[in-house]
Amino acid sequence: MFRRTHIRLTLLNSLVFIVLISILGSIIYFYTDNRLYQDVNRSLMESVNHFQQQPGVDNDDHDSPGPRFMKRDPRIMTLLWQGEGKQLIGEQGRETELFSGKEEQIRPKKLNSLQDVVAGGFSYRYIAFDVNTTAGKVTVQFIRNVNSEKELLDRLILIMFIGCGIGVVCALVSGYFLAGRALVPIKKAWDKQQEFVSDASHELRTPLAVIQAKTDVLFRNPKATIQDKIHDISTISKESRRLSKLVTNLLTLARSDSNQLEMKKQEFQIDELLKEILLQFEDIALYQEKTIHLQAPEPVAFCGDKERIHQLIVILLDNAMKYTNEGGEIQLSCLQSHSSIILSVKDTGIGIPEQDIPRIFDRFFQSNKARTSAEGTGLGLSIAKWIIDKHHGKVKVNSSLGKGTLIEIVFPRTQKN
């Protein structure tokens, strides 16, 4: 799929580049053509005007076979044509000799407009018009050699064709490279999505399989009492809660990816929120023979989504409780500076291997399960990271095996929407 998309993007990028080069080349060519022939056209038209302003051009007493006049531009030659067959006549000896034998090529085909013609291997531009004389109607043709201009334009076209050829090759190469670079984040997102779907399917399959197996066991003994099957029923309930939590977390992450969840930011006292959460965990900590402390020496006002910050702290405390053994300590603190609010959760638990620290916020990632009996889905810290990012915070993790973990979050005091 990506291969075909890569090729299509390459062709599209190349096509756009080729069209732009073609437009630019056309502009350069027509501009050069206009500038090169501007002097030629002006001198031809000035000769016509100068000729028509001479007295006696249409005088019936004119005795010569053609009109007499002074040419303004020595580079312009004058040819006179007379009769139905348009025979070259007159006293223009040099011009007559120059075009001798080339009358068919040089004879004017259209009147009163600038025309191009090739004769004897040379390029010319001319303008012709009829004049009435005593000898009859005569066609006057002003003509100028434009061989140098034509050669320059031909050379320009050749250079442009060569340049366009090189440009097409460069466009294909650069288009292929740019298309590949453009597809890198798409491939990464696709791979992460595939991995997410695979991991989610695996995590969902496990509790479903347990529930199905225990339900089949219950159906095999329809006469058994609840007390007889209390262990199986307890397992079904436990896995159902786990499945519900997993689905909720998956839905949260899916909505966060599509920006369907908005942060409802408002100002609240974060130190009061921490005290409320601490009350919920004190009984659990006491039951598990662990100690939990709060360090919040002063009131701290924070502008954020109170519900999401509550969820963030619960996730961090839940992880700290889960990976701290009996007799361990957990410390939750909240401090503030002139520009920041610092939240931290420190425990004396089993710690995280150094190589795993960069990955703990990845979805479904769980460090070595053999070191602990705690169960999890690997989604909690991913949700925590999303909440931190939405509040423009930075997170830092320090951990040592067997000594504990410190997770420190720094939020800016001024929150952007």
From TrEMBL:
* Chain segments annotated as transmembrane: 12-32, 156-179
Q: What is its EC number?
A: 2.7.13.3
One Pfam family, short name = HATPase_c
Q: Which SUPFAM superfamilies match?
A: ATPase domain of HSP90 chaperone/DNA topoisomerase II/histidine kinase (SSF55874), Homodimeric domain of signal transducing histidine kinase (SSF47384)
Where is it localised? Cell membrane
The record places domain Histidine kinase at 199-415
Task: Check the UniProt entry and state the signal peptide residues, or none.
Answer: none
Known catalysed reaction(s)? ATP + protein L-histidine = ADP + protein N-phospho-L-histidine
Show the GO MF annotations.
Answer: ATP binding; phosphoprotein phosphatase activity; phosphorelay sensor kinase activity
> What Gene3D superfamilies is this protein classified in?
1.10.287.130, Histidine kinase-like ATPase, C-terminal domain
* InterPro entries associated with the record: BphY/WalK/GraS-like, HATPase_C_sf, HATPase_dom, His_kinase_dom, HisK_dim/P_dom, HisK_dim/P_sf, Sig_transdc_His_kin-like_C
Question: How does the protein's chain sit in the membrane according to the entry?
Answer: Multi-pass membrane protein
Q: Which SMART domains match?
A: HATPase_c, HisKA
CC per GO annotation: plasma membrane
Alphabetized UniProt keyword annotations: ATP-binding, Kinase, Membrane, Nucleotide-binding, Phosphoprotein, Transferase, Transmembrane, Transmembrane helix, Two-component regulatory system
Q: Which GO terms describe its biological process?
A: cellular response to phosphate starvation
Protein name in UniProt:
histidine kinase
